[in-house]
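stage 2 :: seqdesign
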């Protein structure tokens, strides 16, 4: 029997877990592949990391690098050094990275310099905003990867415009939607809306963590005003990312939020609880990348407080709208979408089978 091909699947930060989960599962079932899971430890808390492994039914990482938080340079460098040692030890046939976080960039760079093929899942997305750290991570990772797995047509177009050879590019759909489809029944069974006292109500679900929104006091103040406005019209659930929590304390804004009766400021939620809440929300307000896609799949109106999106299909076909952080303008749109808007449609190949398509390409490539 020919030897199984060893693949290292990399996760680092919260939005990676629901993307690698489905791929790792399908690879485990493939008799020609031997997948290992490496967690860089970019995110490390129970609520930012561990709970996702349990809820997404992922095995414990084979290797945990424990790099933790730090500046972009320090974090990226720590991942690179530690991952290099893993590659020396394991000598895999391929490294698979997902998304656009610092761990994605760091691990792809280390692998490619050792002439190990790299597959990038969620390739080709572009916000065309180089002030976003994720945009740099995307551009660099795509430019050095051997296989580029794309979630939407814009990704194919962007890579072509950058001169990437078409034979590296595979439009396979969206692995995050694989996880959503698989876990939706369990998400519904959490009864999270009832536990938070909003079952059957027209509640708003909110997340906010981008440095451009939360790291500067003026924007964070606008955000607090926006929450005051929205919470006057509907119950608001806001699971707070650690970055945002620190900034609310630093700028002395938490007291203003504590005074809003219809707002629940809570710790970051598990995957199933968040999905359960998102599915039944009347409106979602966010600056996340992935949530724009999940709300599009679920048909829930999403107001994204950013100047741009690397996921334009969520606007063209889906339920997403981009808005700048202007509390009055956002409130107007909030009132409009609450009344109901034309339902969007699901983008092509967002069907729960993206991981199988990826694994087929990977096993052919390594055969
Ligand atoms: C990272 C990603 C971003 C992604 C986000 C999801 C990059 C450049 N950014 O941003 O694309 O949308 O994850 O969360 O990779 N912290 C904890 N516990 C943790 C992890 C972080 O408390 O488990 C705190 C630390 O104070 C840390 C801060 O959160 O300094 C920010 O974490 P970091 O990994 O630097 O970036 P994110 O803002 O989470």
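stage 2 :: out
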């Amino acid at each position: 029997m020919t030897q199984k091909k060893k693949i290292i699947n990399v996760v680092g930060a919260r939005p990676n877990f629901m993307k690698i989960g489905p791929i790792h599962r399908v690879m485990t079932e493939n008799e020609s592949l031997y997948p290992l899971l490496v967690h860089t430890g970019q995110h490390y808390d129970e609520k930012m990391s561990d709970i996702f492994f349990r809820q997404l039914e992922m095995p414990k990482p084979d290797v945990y690098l424990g790099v933790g938080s730090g500046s972009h340079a320090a974090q990226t460098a720590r991942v690179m050094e530690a991952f290099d040692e893993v590659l020396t030890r394991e000598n895999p046939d391929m490294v698979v990275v997902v998304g656009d976080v610092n761990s994605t960039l760091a691990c792809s760079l280390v692998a490619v310099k050792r002439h190990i093929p790299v597959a990038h899942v969620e390739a080709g997305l572009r916000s065309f905003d180089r002030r976003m750290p994720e945009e740099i991570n995307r551009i660099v990772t795509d430019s050095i990867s051997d296989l580029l797995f794309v979630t939407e047509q814009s990704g194919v177009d962007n890579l072509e415009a950058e001169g990437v050879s078409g034979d590296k590019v595979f439009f396979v759909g969206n692995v995050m939607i694989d996880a959503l489809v698989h876990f939706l029944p369990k998400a519904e069974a959490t009864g999270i809306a009832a536990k938070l006292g909003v079952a059957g109500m027209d509640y708003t679900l909110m997340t906010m963590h981008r440095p451009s929104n939360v790291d500067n006091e003026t924007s964070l103040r606008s955000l607090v005003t926006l929450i005051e406005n929205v919470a006057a019209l509907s119950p608001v659930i806001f699971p707070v990312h650690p970055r945002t929590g620190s900034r609310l304390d630093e700028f002395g804004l938490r007291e203003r939020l504590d005074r809003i009766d219809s707002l629940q400021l809570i710790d970051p939620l598990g995957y199933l609880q968040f999905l359960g809440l998102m599915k039944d929300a009347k409106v979602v307000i966010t600056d996340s990348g992935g949530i724009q896609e999940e709300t599009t799949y679920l048909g829930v109106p999403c107001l994204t407080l950013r100047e741009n999106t690397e996921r334009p299909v969520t606007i063209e076909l889906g339920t997403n709208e981009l808005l700048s952080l202007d509390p009055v303008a956002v409130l107007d749109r909030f009132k409009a979408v609450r009344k109901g808007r034309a339902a969007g449609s699901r983008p092509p190949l967002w069907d729960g089978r993206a991981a199988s398509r990826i694994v087929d390409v990977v096993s052919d490539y390594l055969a």
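stage 3 :: structure notes
- Residues 44 and 68 are 7 Å apart (CA to CA).
- Residues 13-15, 42-45, 48-49, 69, 100-102, 133-134, 209, 241-243 surround uridine-diphosphate-N-acetylglucosamine (CB under 6 Å).
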